[in-house]
Amino acid sequence: MKVSMSVNGVVQDHDVEPRTLLVHYLRDVVGLTGTNIGCDTTSCGACTVLIDGQSAKSCTILAATADGSSITTIEGLAHGDELHPVQAAFREEHGLQCGYCTPGMVMAAVSLIDEHRTPDGGTDLNEAEVREGLEGNLCRCTGYHNIVRAVLSAAGVSLPGPGTHIAATVGGGQS
Amino acid sequence: MIPAAFEYHRASSLPEVFELLQAHGDDAKLLAGGHSLLPLMKLRLAAPSVIVDISRLSDLAYIREEGDSVKIGALTRHHTVQHSDLLKREVPILPYATSKVGDPQVRHRGTIGGSISHGDPASDLPAVALALGATFTLTGPSGSRQVPASEFFQGFLETALAPDEVLTEISVPKVPSAGWSFQKFNRRAQDWAIVGVAAVVGNGTGNGVALVNMGPTPLRASAVEEALAGGSSAADAAAHASDGLDPPADLNASPEYRRHLAEVLTRRALTEAGAS
C-alpha cells in the first residue's frame, strides 16, 4: 500500500506492506537509523519519535496509521551544526552513557517540555514531573540522574546542586 | 517482531466499518490507537487477517456534558481524557486513573474506547468504568444500544460487543462531590497493575468499588459494596475484597498475594475516598 508522510519536513512517498511498523519504515525504508529499536514491546521508549508533535513509540504504530502525519525523528532536531536545546543540554550535562536510549529519551523530553510550555516561553516542569514524564523511557545504563538534569536544564529550570535529589512522587496524589 | 500479514482497510465512516465487519466477520479486528492490539499481533498471540483502522473517525473523539453525565467518544485519546478540565471537575477519578495508564507515549496514542473494548482484566479504565457505573453505547448496522459497564465484561478478553458492533461512546455520571480513589500496585512505573482498586463513594446512588487483575474480567467488588451499604467501616468492608474471587497466578504474584493486595489496596482506597 502507498503511504505518504512528512519526515523531518521532507515528504516521503513509499509502497509498504500493511504490517510494516513505523520504526521499520523510518529505519529501513526512509533510511533514518537514528531511531533505535530496543525492547520492541512498547516498554523501553528507545524508538520514540514525534507524531504531529507528540511523543509516540514507533514500534507500536503501523506506518499505514501514520500515513498523512508529520513525523520528527532525532535527525530532525538540529539545525545544521546547531544542536536542538535538548540535545545540547544532554551533551552539557552528560545525559548519556552508552547512548542507546538517547534518541528516544531526547524525543520524549522534547514532547514533555513542549507540553509544559508557559506563555512566557519557560516551562512549569519540576524534577518530579520530569522523572514521571520520562517513565516510558528506560536507560540501560541507569544514568537517569544526569538525564533528568539535562531535561531540567533544557526546560530552563535551575538545576539542583550536586548531591541533592528530590524523590519522584508516587501513588496517592489527589492534590 | 513483525505482525503476521493482514489486509488493511482504513474506514472513513461508521457505515463503512459495519460493511467491513460484516464482510470479514471474525477475521477482522478494529484498530484504534493500537496499543492493546498491536503488541499482541507482534507476539503473534493475535493474527487477524483483516485490520479495520478506525483511528480517523474523528467524530468519535469528544468529551461533552449532557445533563447529569459526561459523554466521551470512544476514540478520545488517554492524553485528552487526562487533561480534560471538564472531567477533572465532574468525574475526577477518570482523568487521574487515566494518568496512570502506561506512559506518556502510550497515552498520546491509546484511546479510552480501545482500552475498554479490549476488556483486559489487568487494565485500569474498565475498573474505573465499573466503579463509576458507566454506560457504554454499542453501535451496529441496525442502530445503537446502551449497555451498563457491569454487564459489558463477560469473560477473559470477551465483552458484550457483537462481531459487527463498535463501542462508540462512554457515558459517565457526574460525581463532583463523591469521594474517590484509584490505587494501582505495580513493580515498575509503566507496568500493568498487579492489583488495582477504583472506588467512588457517597455519590448518592450507592458506592462503587471495582478491582483490576483479580479475575478473568474487570470486576466489581460486590461484597465490599454490600458491606459498605450495611454500615461497615473501611477496614471491615475491605476484608471482603476478594470474597468469591479466583485471582490469577503469574510471575508477579500468587493468588494469595493478590488477595492480600486487594484487601490492603481496598482499605487504602476506601480510606482515601472517605468511606466511613
Describe this structure in words.
The complex is a heterodimer of chains A (175) and B (276). Chain A has 175 residues and is α+β, with helices and mostly antiparallel strands. Chain A has helices at 22-30, 63-66, 85-92, 102-115, 127-133, 144-154; strands at 2-7, 10-15, 48-51, 54-57, 70-72. Chain A folds into two domains: 2-75, Roll (Ubiquitin-like (UB roll)), CATH 3.10.20.30; 85-154, DNA polymerase, domain 1, CATH 1.10.150. Chain A contains six helices and five strands. In chain A, a hairpin with a 2-residue loop joins β3 and β4 (54-57). Chain A is globular and about 55 Å long. Mean pLDDT of chain A is 92; it is low at 168-173. Chain B has 276 residues and is of the alpha+beta class. Chain B folds into three domains: 7-53, Uridine Diphospho-n-acetylenolpyruvylglucosamine Reductase, domain 2 (2-Layer Sandwich), CATH 3.30.43; 58-173, 2-Layer Sandwich (Uridine Diphospho-n-acetylenolpyruvylglucosamine Reductase, domain 3); 179-273, CO dehydrogenase flavoprotein, C-terminal domain (Enolase-like, domain 1, 2-Layer Sandwich), CATH 3.30.390. Chain B has a five-stranded antiparallel sheet. A four-stranded antiparallel sheet of chain B has the order 11-12-13-14, with helices on both faces. In chain B, strands 1-3-2 form a three-stranded parallel sheet, covered by helices on one side. The model of chain B has no long low-confidence stretch (mean pLDDT 96).
